[in-house]
Amino acid sequence: MNPKEMTPEEMVSRLLYRDGLMLVIDKPAGFAVHNGPKGGVSLEDHFDALRFGLPRSPSLAHRLDRDTSGCLVLGRHRKALAALGKRFKNGEVGKTYWAVVEGSPDVDEGVIDLPLGRLDVTRGWWMKHDPQGQPAVTKWKVLGRSPFASPCRGEAGSRSEPEGEVPDCSGKTAPPRRAAHVDPPPAGEGKKLAWLALAPLTGRTHQLRVHCAEMGWPILGDNIYGNAPREGGPALHLHAREVVVPLYKNRDPIKVTAPVPEHMRATLAQCGWQGEDRHIPLVPDSAAREAVVSKSSL
Question: What are phi and psi of 198, to 5 degrees?
């Protein structure tokens, strides 16, 4: 969808949550959330359709990259925006992203603690791991892996093997079996892939993309830090799956989930995703968030 072609009805159709203070919309991939120095049309230009009777349009409470899809939080007026901004700044908002990465982590979960800094002044917002940079911490967990791996070597295998006798991992002959046919993903074909839940405990620019790349499993479709070509490659497989906002003092935090975007469905299915009926959240506990906030303030 071209940002210029989005209608008010389409903007409203992306609404996931609404109350008197806050809106959460499902941001489409490929949309800048606000106008950059070069101008152009952004998602923010369509927020007037989300006033719902208020005198002003809602405003961004945080940011998502142009190519990242999913939960985007808006404040409906100045007081609400200030309250939301404080919670985001203090690390009180739980954020869970889903990503499909190239490669496969050696373990099933962990924490990435790699400070980040600007790559150089000529690269705008491009970032790098910098031991002297700002603290950046990401909690992660493997939710599934691509089945295209050899049971003997752990290497990418063919998508269909011949029927009949096949060697097992000891070199002996296993009983005949029929080859299972699995449709290949349209992106990442022939590569080992893993489906991760990523919970950023800090909010640095491009944090998840740099952290995954530094770990040796870049996000599929990342044409800055990963292996995707600058033009014509797969879309970035990074989705803001869930946001948990403790907005009201005497109420439970507001939890909002964004549906998986079309461009990630096939690759997630290859990694074991079984559809929207099986929601697997990963939100860091408050103690972990408070520890990181304390560390970041030093």
Answer: -120, 125
